[in-house]
Design a protein that fits this description.
LMF; membrane; 2 domains; two-stranded antiparallel ribbon; transmembrane helix; 14 helices; transmembrane; single chain; alpha+beta; Lipase maturation factor
């Protein structure tokens, strides 16, 4: 959490001038329905969100060292913070996993109210065992000594592996989301060090027209399971599940297809109506029909519609505007040398 806070302060200026949340809900990888309404929150609420984020990520982690009560407060704030993030967007299982270490902040006394305390209950039996043992400490057994040695050894190993992570945190050129050893046990993390200020999407389209340049060619959209496509489709709610292809399409949208050759691999599979590739999509416009002759990628700019506005009244969650071509119309035959150069098997049409 501390690393995530540092990468924000050192990264995008909008984290310092408190404007990042003006864009985040709209431009995050996979928004959900709540993201739509949070995006349209008042400006002062967005400023409060950023100040709260800085407090929880940069200051609250040190509560761990300030005694029992401060540690409990730390655990409660971190879990609440992650719960808010889960509600506000589809960030897969990340926030759920981040909650797990915070559970260690709650000792038996804190969680005791969860267990019944009547006669014969689990709590009653534990107290009885403690009274029977009294103040005497059992003699250490061989197994406990081995376990203690293993714990100490693991602690030393983790401390040693943490050295480059701590040095990275202290560095003014902090690296985000990387590992420093082949074991991948102790890594560095930081989310949203920079915020994209506008949302762009790659829309894959196919046509059965023999001539891709013909004015009367009808291009039909492929719909993904969760990422924005049809402006009228409600944003999905999938956390903690993760649609990796939808996530990768978000990254591809603010790069070029030359940086993401896998998207042409996908286009080739769509040209062949590959069943496994189509299973990753929500809608195939060529279902029960021959595969398309051409597939292209179109680049669009997306913005949330304004509640109460004309587009929202028409049932649209998004307003989109074409930017231009992402990649030109391609046929399976044109992709043959591209696939061969990369050692990919050419998909065969059904």
């Amino acid at each position: 959490m501390f690393g995530a806070g540092l990468i924000k302060i050192r990264g995008d200026r909008c984290w310092r001038d408190l404007t990042c949340m003006d864009f985040h809900y709209e431009t995050q990888p996979v928004p959900n329905p709540v993201s739509y309404y949070l995006h349209h929150s008042p400006w002062w609420f967005h400023r409060f969100e950023i100040l709260s984020t800085h407090f929880i990520e940069l200051l609250v982690p040190f509560f761990l060292f300030l005694g029992r009560r401060a540690c409990i407060i730390h655990g409660a704030l971190q879990i609440l913070f992650q719960a808010i993030l889960i509600v506000s967007g589809n960030l897969s299982f990340l926030n759920w996993l981040t909650m797990v270490p915070s559970l260690a902040c709650f000792d038996d006394a804190t969680l005791g109210f969860l267990f019944p305390s009547g006669p014969g209950s689990l709590k009653d039996r534990v107290l009885q065992m403690q009274r029977e043992i009294g103040g005497a400490r059992p003699k250490p057994r061989f197994g406990s000594v081995v376990r203690r040695a293993a714990n100490v050894s693991l602690g030393i190993l983790l401390a040693w592996l943490s050295v480059p992570v701590v040095l990275n945190l202290l560095s003014p050129i902090q690296v985000m989301n990387t590992h420093f050893n082949s074991l991948h046990i102790v890594n560095t993390y930081g989310a949203f060090g920079s915020i994209t200020k506008e949302r762009t999407e790659v829309i894959l389209q196919g046509t059965a027209s023999p001539n891709a340049s013909a004015p009367d060619a009808v291009w039909e959209d492929y719909e993904f399971k969760c990422k924005p496509g049809d402006p009228s489709r409600r944003p999905c709610l999938i956390s903690p599940y993760h649609y990796r292809l939808d996530w990768l399409m978000w990254f591809a949208s603010f790069q070029t297809y030359e940086h993401n050759d896998w998207i042409l691999h996908l286009a080739g599979k769509l040209l062949a109506s590959d069943a496994e590739a189509l299973s990753l999509l929500a809608h195939n416009p060529f279902a029960s029909r021959p595969p398309p002759r051409w597939v292209r990628g179109e680049h669009y700019r997306y913005k949330f519609s304004r509640p109460g506005g004309r587009h929202a009244a028409e049932g649209k969650w998004w307003v989109r505007k074409r930017i231009g071509a992402y990649f030109p119309p391609l046929s399976l035959e044109e992709l043959r040398p591209y696939f061969r150069d990369r050692g990919w098997p050419l998909p065969q049409p059904l």
